[in-house]
Amino acid sequence: MRRSNPITIAALLATTNAASLDDLCTVSHVQAALPANGTILGLNLLADSVTAAAVYNATVGRESTATYSYCNVTASYTQVGKDNVIPLKFIFPQPPDFQNRWYLAGGGGFSLSSDATGGLPYGAASGATSAGYDAFNFSYDEKVLYGNGSINWDATYAFSYTALGELTKIGKPLTQAFYGLNDTKIYTYFEGCSDGGREGMSQVQRWGEEYDGVVAGAPAFRFAQQQVLHVYPATIEAVNDYYPPPCALAKIVNATIAACDPLDGRTDGVISRTDLCKLNFNLSSLIGESYYCAAQTGTSLGFGFSKRQAPPGGQTSVQPAQNGTITAQDVAVAQGVYDGLHDSNGKRAYLSWQIGSDLSDADPTYNNATSVWELNIPSTGGEYVTKFIQLLDLDNLSDLNNVTYDTLVEWMNIGMIRYLDSLQTTLPDLTPFQSSGGKLLHYHGESDPSIPAASSVHYWQSVRDIMYPGLSDAESRDALSDWYQFYLVPGAAHCGSNSLQPGPYPVDNMATIIDWVESGVKPSRLNATVSSGVNKGEVQALCQWPTRPLWSGNSSEFECVEDLASVESWTYTFDAFKLPVY
Ligand SMILES: *[C@@H]1O[C@H](CO)[C@@H](O)[C@H](O)[C@H]1NC(C)=O
Ligand SMILES: *[C@@H]1O[C@H](CO)[C@@H](O)[C@H](O)[C@H]1NC(C)=O
Ligand SMILES: *[C@@H]1O[C@H](CO)[C@@H](O)[C@H](O)[C@H]1NC(C)=O
Ligand SMILES: *[C@@H]1O[C@H](CO)[C@@H](O)[C@H](O)[C@H]1NC(C)=O
Ligand SMILES: *[C@@H]1O[C@H](CO)[C@@H](O)[C@H](O)[C@H]1NC(C)=O
Ligand SMILES: *[C@@H]1O[C@H](CO)[C@@H](O)[C@H](O)[C@H]1NC(C)=O
Ligand SMILES: *[C@@H]1O[C@H](CO)[C@@H](O)[C@H](O)[C@H]1NC(C)=O
Ligand SMILES: *[C@@H]1O[C@H](CO)[C@@H](O)[C@H](O)[C@H]1NC(C)=O
Ligand SMILES: *[C@@H]1O[C@H](CO)[C@@H](O)[C@H](O)[C@H]1NC(C)=O
Ligand SMILES: *[C@@H]1O[C@H](CO)[C@@H](O)[C@H](O)[C@H]1NC(C)=O
Ligand SMILES: *[C@@H]1O[C@H](CO)[C@@H](O)[C@H](O)[C@H]1NC(C)=O
Ligand SMILES: *[C@@H]1O[C@H](CO)[C@@H](O)[C@H](O)[C@H]1NC(C)=O
Questions:
Q1: Active site (annotated) includes residue 458
Q2: Domains and CATH numbers, the chain
Q3: 448 an active-site residue?
Q4: DSSP structural state of residue 262
Q5: EC number(s) of the enzyme (predicted)?
Q6: Taking residues 178-185, what's their average pLDDT?
Q7: pLDDT exceeds cutoff 90 at 302
Q8: How far apart are CA 453 and CA 489, in angstroms?
């Protein structure tokens, strides 16, 4: 590839917008565009580390058929006073495609995104960071401990929020200089779900003035409570020494969906109002219903918190044919899960999954040798306890011997306090983001079986209370809605649609946030499309929290209604802890 003279390029950029991808995509041009030492406090770019290569007509992403031409760049930086080298990836769209945007995609589980191509569909430059712990090659849970008892705090803060904030601090001026647009505003976006949603929230909370628009789905925040919650269903079973057949649990879920589906005014296989289900449906009515599941050999899957999702002892699980009727003990397990964790004094420690959500965290393991159902500890929760609480380099708890509900509360409390300003990610004062004009679009599948939908509701409530303490209910809702909107997605599961409920899912979130940020089009509803079932293709305009959907008469669209009892059913106080839980 030919070498370009950076002065010539700068002149070209200054006079016309005629620079081609080949002109810009050179090592020397990128080196010249790097923010100079001293311009970003504490971060120095390493010019010698730069690579740049033009890529033409490439297909990126899994489903996309579109092709893109872009400059593929790597560069490293160091934190002043440390002898670390942190590699970064960047993708710059070819000049005609660039629309003055910077975009970061969230990762999932314990991984940041390692892909920098996510901005291409939006005409945005983008980046990815190795975060100082080799995050392109390792997930954070593999790095959190140097060894037993020794926390890697650099990796912890990097994963929690600093690595992505530093990437944006570097990426924006680099993008401006790359395209010769030093005085032009670069609209800055973050989009993610699950841990990616948490990462988005971390950027709003810690680097708020850097971002114009953030789309955060089902955020895996309130990390201590959220992770220990994954151990709660198994603890109910261990405490009661009763392990329900998974088929009985699946039947409880299916029968609950069938019973509660009509409460929202339309029978479409979807509980659009889990609050009405919670308030009006009694699981005990299912006792005696029969269930049947055929024998199967399969792979057990977790819900995306850890790359190592299989329980210890192997990948395959065997399930015999299950044929029986729902018992009071089965219902007691399900009811306990949906009620949420309380300590031995009856004080609430955490919220739970909405009634009708899949109960897969409660599924026991079948012991093929003894033909009994046994304890199964989801590694999503067990690994958090071993590594982050007990500080032991083990991938899961081996058992729950002597573990009580109070033990879970204690684990939550230790985790909350230890990681309060890192992983917890629930800082509710969003003043820097709000006052610099940022817009936040937050959504959550109402039947999420991994991260409870109520966990998002609670954060919305915390932000409102902290940001607008003096305003009335209506005033504070309106004020918040100007820059932070939250939508529950009826029936949806964790960061996607739900095979048990053929409901809608929002698919145009980036278009919505771009319109809001760049054209001032403030949403009031959020379009979501049904992707399966009899209503496949239907577009539903989701209701902005705290209004709730209700079909009335034979209307083809639901209304968004005010319902105080519903909202109260989503409102919690966690008095098992001495500290406030935001
Ligand atoms: C910027 O700082 C880095 C590390 O501190 C150093 O290696 C590099 O040479 C500096 N660059 C310039 C242009 O001074
Ligand atoms: C990329 O595709 C465009 C349009 O199809 C074509 O004109 C161009 O030659 C292609 N470039 C390369 C390097 O293949
Ligand atoms: C960027 O370049 C690196 C190094 O050649 C390569 O491994 C990577 O696949 C490229 N990425 C894209 C998105 O083109
Ligand atoms: C990933 O690890 C390999 C060695 O295992 C190393 O050569 C490579 O540089 C690492 N990649 C990054 C981006 O750090
Ligand atoms: C860390 O602690 C666990 C549990 O006690 C033990 O099994 C493991 O061997 C220890 N690892 C090291 C490197 O000492
Ligand atoms: C933009 O900034 C870069 C880095 O500071 C500088 O090298 C370049 O000349 C500037 N370009 C324009 C068009 O001002
Ligand atoms: C629950 O419903 C799903 C589909 O909606 C079905 O595949 C599954 O077999 C049902 N399970 C039980 C136990 O009825
Ligand atoms: C549910 O029904 C059972 C059995 O009829 C009853 O004991 C229980 O009190 C009911 N629960 C609620 C919340 O009404
Ligand atoms: C389940 O058990 C019932 C009662 O024993 C029996 O009538 C039924 O045929 C069984 N169903 C299957 C699918 O095995
Ligand atoms: C489970 O046990 C049955 C009967 O003892 C045996 O035939 C079967 O091979 C076992 N399956 C596995 C996967 O171990
Ligand atoms: C668990 O509790 C039993 C009985 O209360 C006690 O004997 C045992 O030492 C305890 N085990 C542990 C590991 O604390
Ligand atoms: C929402 O969907 C409706 C019906 O498909 C459509 O008319 C409307 O333009 C969409 N709104 C937005 C903001 O995309």
A1: no
A2: 1-96+108-180 (no CATH), 186-220+426-546 (3.40.50), 226-420 (no CATH)
A3: yes
A4: G
A5: 3.1.1.-
A6: 95
A7: no
A8: 9
